[in-house]
Amino acid sequence: MPLPKAELHLHVEGTLEPELAFELAARNGVKLPYADTDELREAYRFQDLQSFLNLYYELMAVLRTEQDFEDLANAYLARAAAQGVRHAEIFFDPQAHLSRGVEMGTVVEGLWRALGRSEEGHGISTRLILCFLRDESAESAMETLQAARPYLDRITGVGLDSAEVGHPPVKFREVYEAAAALGLRRVAHAGEEGPPQYITEALDVLGVERVDHGLRCMEDPELVARLVRERIPLTLCPLSNVRLRTVDTLADHPLPAMLDAGLLCTVNSDDPAYFGGYAGDNFDAVQRTLGLTEERLRELARNSFLAAFLDDDEERRQRYLAEVEAYTFP
Ligand SMILES: Nc1ncnc2[nH]cnc12
Ligand SMILES: [Zn+2]
């Protein structure tokens, strides 16, 4: 039995495996510029975040109907359950669909058809987090938030993703204020490729409660001290960092130093279909390569539930935390 954990940094579009991409392409009459799944996998050699994003957006062309989004989410939930995920907070990128003529309702209702049955079907509780694309305008983000208003009973929070450098958090100040006024939780990618200053801005200007990635905080000791003091969770994605060359090799990953510094770290998969592993694979990889002790792994799992947006269901959080403490490693 795998260690129970929450996944807090997972882009549902990043769970599109090549096999499902071809299946959906055939179903929707979409022509992909790859002969087969092998040729597509060959394209998964990324130089940086942008080279990954190019492929990530290109493949979204196969996602067209509610059924497509339901199938995508169901495939993820099945894989996640097999790797010990008990709770998943799932990002989606509506602007990447709206711009192709796929409506907000198609995306949210499609995802919800899977998420609404996830507890019975996969034993996973879920939350949905709407992400704004930071390389699009603030006006577009605000329009997207407005388009989501009929679906807010299904959406827990907002996030910020896509190309980071040159798109500082401050650009989205008003959108995040509007999201907060609607009662939405706030997170943002910061310090993945962008500088530590973006992490500070995400906290101070956007009021985020968790930082996605946050890796580059390690360049600024005062920021580390603040993150420790304020118990700000970081949603790290080790295999993603290797594939996008944020770190040279997994052995160079600062996770052990971050835990030693007292940071509230969690381990997640980001875009598992592209980066070589789901949540459990990320745990296994850091255990193997970074030599994390069982107590460190238990700490990561505990942190994931502490950092989860389960404030409306504390009883469930305590149940999950008890599962973590009772877990015996094989
Ligand atoms: N790792 C990542 N960083 C920024 N935007 C993303 N969108 C999907 N994955 C992402
Ligand atoms: Zn991400």
Automatic annotation (TrEMBL):
Entry EC number(s): 3.5.4.2
Q: Where is the Adenosine deaminase domain?
A: 4-317
Q: Which domain of life is it from?
A: Bacteria
Q: What is this protein called?
A: Adenine deaminase
Q: Which residues form the active site?
A: 192 (proton donor)
Which parts of the sequence bind substrate?
Answer: 271
Transmembrane ranges?
A: none
**In which organism is this protein found?**
Streptomyces mexicanus
Query: Which keywords appear in this protein's UniProt record, sorted alphabetically?
Result: Hydrolase, Metal-binding, Nucleotide metabolism, Zinc
Cofactor, how bound (note):
Binds 1 zinc ion per subunit.
Say yes or no: keyword Hydrolase present. yes
What GO terms describe the biological role, i.e. biological process, of this protein? adenine catabolic process; hypoxanthine salvage; nucleotide metabolic process
Q: What does this protein do?
A: Catalyzes the hydrolytic deamination of adenine to hypoxanthine. Plays an important role in the purine salvage pathway and in nitrogen catabolism.
